[in-house]
């Protein structure tokens, strides 16, 4: 694996523009609604600040996650208990650091997971996926790795569980914690939130998946230890896009195989990047890649069938089969949502059967049409 390298000026500029565009994409509340949110936030903050002992947590509207209470060493206080709790009204997560007599020594709700829906009090937090304690910045003090499960109620991502990773660094006094929003941004934007191991590999050891999303050539991928799945790598002609090499492969981060597919021209330049793994944690097995016309427009599309693994809400390993279809357009490829919303494949599905069902959706009568 290759350690994180300094980005060029152009890359920093692009990432800055992406961050600003995300901020601008959120609708601003009307003046009356904004004042209402402020009033609710003041009430919420008053309840949070009123908590000075463990007994106060439930009394002020927070529900303790009992199976996620762990001891941690704070250099300024000694061993304490870290107690996570969700606010019952707004699903905001707070962490309370409590000594043996029940006194709250430190508390914080300044967490990445509490900023999923900007401008609203209620957040989509559903559960804690993982908590781990590591010395991430090698200063001799224990830091906190936190991963939560979230589910949005509306929008294009509605009802689809996803993970949010975060890191809290213990301060020099050993009496509290601080965050670096830039680290949390990269953890979540580049898919390094799959597990505590992947976050540790990034923050402590310097390994990163960022190159998977920013590389412009096949050589750059290979220099960063991207492993091509050679048996599924081949050239195909895609209409006006020309002759392209379909390059599937994985990058191993900690215990996770991150699966990507690149379309590379004959000069070795990446024209398109496909991400069929979505929010799954790991590629378990690639069952096949098929390039043929699916929607009947005369252009080759791409069908990907694979098995993926992930840890569910109670930490058990789940392995499922899933597929993705990418339709060729004049300027690239667009991912299918229509068929996938209507048909979920099973472990028994083969590529041939999946292609036949997909083509039938678009009106093909038989494989020979």
Globally, the shape reads: elongated
Helix content: 10-25%
Overall SS class: alpha+beta
Kindly state the number of beta strands.
Answer: 18
Radius of gyration: 23 Å
**How many strands, what sense, and barrel or not for the largest sheet?**
5 strands, antiparallel
Distance between the termini: 47 Å
Q: What count of helical segments does DSSP give? A: 9
* Uncertain residue ranges: 1-28
Mean pLDDT: 91
Percentage of residues in strands: 25-35%
Order of helices and strands: HHHEEEEEEEEEHHHHEEEEEEEEEHH
Question: How would you sum up this structure, described in words?
Answer:
With 369 residues, the protein is α+β, with helices and mostly antiparallel strands. It contains nine helices and 18 strands. It has helices at residues 9-24, 31-49, 54-59, 181-189, 196-203, 210-214, 218-223, 338-342, 351-361; strands at residues 62-64, 70-74, 78-87, 93-98, 104-108, 125-134, 143-150, 162-170, 177-178, 227-228, 234-237, 243-253, 256-264, 270-274, 282-292, 301-311, 317-329, 332-335. Strands 1, 2, 3, 4 and 5 form a five-stranded antiparallel beta sheet that branches. Strands 10, 11, 12, 13 and 14 form a five-stranded antiparallel beta sheet that branches. A hairpin with a 3-residue loop joins strand 2 and strand 3 (78-87).
């Amino acid at each position: 694996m290759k350690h994180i390298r300094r980005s060029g000026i152009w890359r920093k500029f692009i990432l800055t523009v992406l961050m600003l565009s995300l901020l601008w994409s959120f609708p601003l509340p009307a003046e009356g609604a904004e004042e209402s949110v402020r009033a609710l936030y003041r009430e919420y903050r008053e309840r949070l600040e009123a908590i000075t002992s463990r007994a106060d947590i439930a009394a002020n509207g927070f529900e303790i996650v009992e199976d996620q209470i762990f001891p941690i060493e704070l250099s300024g206080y000694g061993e304490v208990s870290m107690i996570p709790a969700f606010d019952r009204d707004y699903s905001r997560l707070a962490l309370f650091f409590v000594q043996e007599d029940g006194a709250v020594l430190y508390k914080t709700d300044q967490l990445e997971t509490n900023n999923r829906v900007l401008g609203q009090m209620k957040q989509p937090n559903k559960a804690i996926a993982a908590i781990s304690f590591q010395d991430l910045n090698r200063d001799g003090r224990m830091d906190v790795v936190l991963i939560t499960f979230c589910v949005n109620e509306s929008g294009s991502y509605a009802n689809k569980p996803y993970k949010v990773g975060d890191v809290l660094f213990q301060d020099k006094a050993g009496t509290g914690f601080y965050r670096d929003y830039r680290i949390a941004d990269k953890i979540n934007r580049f898919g390094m939130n799959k597990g505590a191991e992947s976050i540790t590999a990034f923050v402590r050891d310097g390994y990163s998946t960022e190159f998977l999303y920013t590389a412009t050539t096949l050589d750059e991928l290979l220099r960063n230890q991207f492993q091509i799945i050679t048996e599924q790598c081949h050239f195909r002609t895609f209409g006006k896009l020309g002759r392209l090499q379909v390059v599937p492969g994985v990058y191993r981060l900690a215990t996770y195989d991150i699966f990507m597919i690149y379309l590379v021209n004959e000069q070795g330049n990446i024209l398109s990047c496909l991400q069929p793994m979505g929010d799954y944690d790991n590629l378990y097995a690639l069952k096949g890649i098929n390039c043929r016309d699916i929607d009947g427009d005369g252009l080759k599309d791409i069908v990907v069938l694979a098995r993926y693994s992930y840890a569910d809400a109670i930490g058990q390993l789940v392995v499922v089969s899933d597929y993705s279809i990418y339709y060729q357009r004049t300027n690239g490829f667009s991912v299918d949502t229509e068929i996938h919303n209507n048909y979920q494949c099973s472990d028994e599905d083969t590529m041939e059967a999946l292609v036949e069902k997909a083509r039938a959706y678009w009106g093909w009568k038989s494989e020979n049409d």
